[in-house]
Amino acid sequence: MSAPDEQPELRLTAEEFAEGRADGLGDIEIVDGRVVRMMAQSPLHSRVVRRMAGLLEAARRPGGPCLVVDSDVAARFADADSAAADRKLNIRYPDIWIRDCEPYDLNSVRDHILLVVEVTSESTIDVDITDKRIQYATAGIPCYLIVRLDQKEQRIEEIEEYRLDWSGRRYRAHDVHRRVLLLDEPLEATIPFEVLEQA
After folding, report:
1. Which of 47, 59, 140, 147: disulfide with 119, CB 3.0–4.6 Å?
2. In this predicted model, what pLDDT tens digit does every residue of 54-102 receive, in sequence order?
3. How far apart are CA 183 and CA 94, in angstroms?
4. pLDDT of 139-181, one tens digit each?
């Protein structure tokens, strides 16, 4: 029997998610069928996501290639290896992604993502640097940026840039940016940390 203040574990199958059963649950992700509620983020986390998405969008070159920058949009990743339908579904809402301009489809968008950005927080750092890094690499996403905030979530410590090693579908460290993000793929951008941090 669960403690009085404990909520029973909520699980969803792909069919239930498609039927809208996740609607009204708030900020969630679904990991191996289990609904994971997301914690509210700090003001700095919100600013960094908002500003970086805008700056990446502004860095797109006129005339192509056609790129879409989105924030907190659902993507379905490979199902977990389980016989039970309610133990399979994996839905993530990356902080930011850049993808090609193919029409959005929840079930196939992962095949069109060129870069993912996750901004760490105290509640997400372990998942960002382990689980998501494995999941995004397995999906074949070429570039992954982890924006590490300091412990008090008042400034950016560094941005880790990982590139996909296609031979093993895993990420290799490419660069660590300490004051300015210098990005060359899938678009060229120079983004000073102070621009992302300013109130």
Report:
1. 147
2. 999 999 999 889 999 999 999 999 999 999 999 999 999 999 999 999 9
3. 19
4. 999 999 999 999 999 999 999 999 999 888 899 999 999 999 9
Contact between 142 and 58 (Cβ < 8 Å): no
Distances (CA, A) of 97 to 16, 24, 57, 81, 120: 26, 24, 10, 26, 15
Q: Give the pair of three-digit tokens for residue 171.
A: 């990420």
Q: For residues 14 and 85, is the Cβ–Cβ distance under 8 A?
A: yes
Please answer whether residues 162 and 144 qualify as being in contact, where contact means their C-beta atoms are separated by less than 8 angstroms. yes
Which spans in the chain are helix H?
Answer: 14-18, 43-58, 125-126, 132-138, 193-197
The conformation of residue 93, written as its DSSP 8-state character, comes to -
Task: Break the chain down into helix, strand, coil percent, rounded to 5.
Answer: 25, 30, 45
Q: Rounded to an integer, what distance in angstroms lies between the CA atom of residue 31 and that of residue 116? A: 18
Q: Is the pTM of this model over 0.90?
A: yes
Residue 16: strand, helix, or coil: helix
